[in-house]
Amino acid sequence: MDEKNELMCDEPCAHEDVVGKVRDVLPDDDTLYELADLFKMFGDSTRMKILFVLMESEMCVCDIAELLGISQSAISHQLRILKQSKLISSRREGKNIICFLADDHVKSIIAQGLSHVLE
Amino acid sequence: MDEKNELMCDEPCAHEDVVGKVRDVLPDDDTLYELADLFKMFGDSTRMKILFVLMESEMCVCDIAELLGISQSAISHQLRILKQSKLISSRREGKNIICFLADDHVKSIIAQGLSHVLE
DNA sequence: CTTTCATATGAACAGATGTTCATGTGTTTA
DNA sequence: TAAACACATGAACATCTGTTCATATGAAAG
After folding, report:
1. Torsions phi, psi of B83, nearest 5?
2. Do residues B62 and B73 touch, judged by C-beta distance below 8 A?
3. Pairing relation of β-strands B59-60 and B96-101?
4. Has residue A34 got a pLDDT over 60?
5. pLDDT above 80 (res B115)
6. CB spacing of A13 vs B94 below 8 angstroms
7. Domain at B52, CATH number
8. pLDDT tens figures, A80-93
9. In this structure, is the CB of residue A68 within 7 Å of any atom belonging to strand C?
10. How many separate domains does chain B show?
């Protein structure tokens, strides 16, 4: 006999089997958290701008900052976060650090979002 | 003669024309903010769980809360946010409010993210 | 080796965000 | 009409986030 949560409505509007079915299909918690963390990267306008820029061309840090009109420090902090998420990568070239997209999914994810926003 | 930002590196590693080209292609600020706000909706695990559930089946508020093991109040607050973003919609059915996805893009956006996470 | 330049980083701070708790609202049922 | 139920909402609170400012690092040029 199943436990009765205090919060649950007396007569579930969805049948028990539907609720159970959905529960079975739900990804495990770790996956859900990873997924939310991934989308969190796209959820800040500064990071979104950086990703957009790098979709067009790889570029060094100072050029990104100058192009976007955002301080070098702010850009650098955000780049660190994006690197930790494996969305971008970088290489040294002379005095500069060249940043570029590390993941093909970035473009398709942004494209999906954009087609929604521009609908 | 173009203005020289203090922050810009002396000799841009990307040529000026590349930077200019990228600037031309960048969506306007409003679009970028909208886009970031959209992804922000997917950037919280509670909202992600709600959306996942509704991808499987429409469901009343209390069932969502019970299924996810999250308080009714927390769910309700998040539902409000998701409705404001036009991602979900609802209708009354007897005593219950039935929630459902309002946008087809939701599935494809989540699918893209999931394929990245599960890679 | 010293200076300069491009970038990274830590501390501090303000603002945003998500949850809880208490309570309000509106619908249904007795 | 009164009680019960499903849901919404506001205030308070703690936490997370993103920026700035000052400074550190490390490669390159002199």
Report:
1. -70, -40
2. no
3. antiparallel
4. yes
5. yes
6. yes
7. 1.10.10.10
8. 999 999 999 999 99
9. no
10. 1
Residue B12 has pLDDT above 50, yes or no: yes
Backbone angles phi, psi at B47, to 5 degrees: -65, -40
In a domain? residue B92: yes
Within-domain flag for B9: no
CA distance B116 to B119: 5
Q: Do B27 and A114 touch (CB under 8 A)?
A: yes
Look at residue A4 and tell me if it is in a domain: no
Subunit contact A7:B52, Cβ cutoff 8 A: no
Summary mean pLDDT of chain B: 89
Q: CA B49, CA B44: separation in Å to the nearest integer?
A: 9
Question: Cα separations (Å) of A100 from A54, A87, A88, B101?
Answer: 6, 9, 6, 35
pLDDT of B47 higher than 80: yes
Tell me whether residue B40 is in a domain.
Answer: no
Q: Indicate the residue of B13, B33, B71 with minimum beta-carbon distance to A96.
A: B13
* Closest Cα in chain A, distance from residue B81 (Å): 15
Instruction: Tell me the chain A residues in contact with residue B4 when contact means C-beta distances shorter than 8 Å.
Output: none
Q: Minimal Cα–Cα distance from A56 to chain B, Å?
A: 6
State both tokens at B99: 């929630």
Closest alpha carbon within chain A to B96: A13
**B24 interaction partners in chain A (CB closer than 8 Å):** none
> CA distances (Å), B119 to each of A86, A108, B14, B69, B116, in order?
13, 15, 32, 28, 5
Determine the length of chain B: 119
Q: Which domain holds residue A83?
A: 16-117
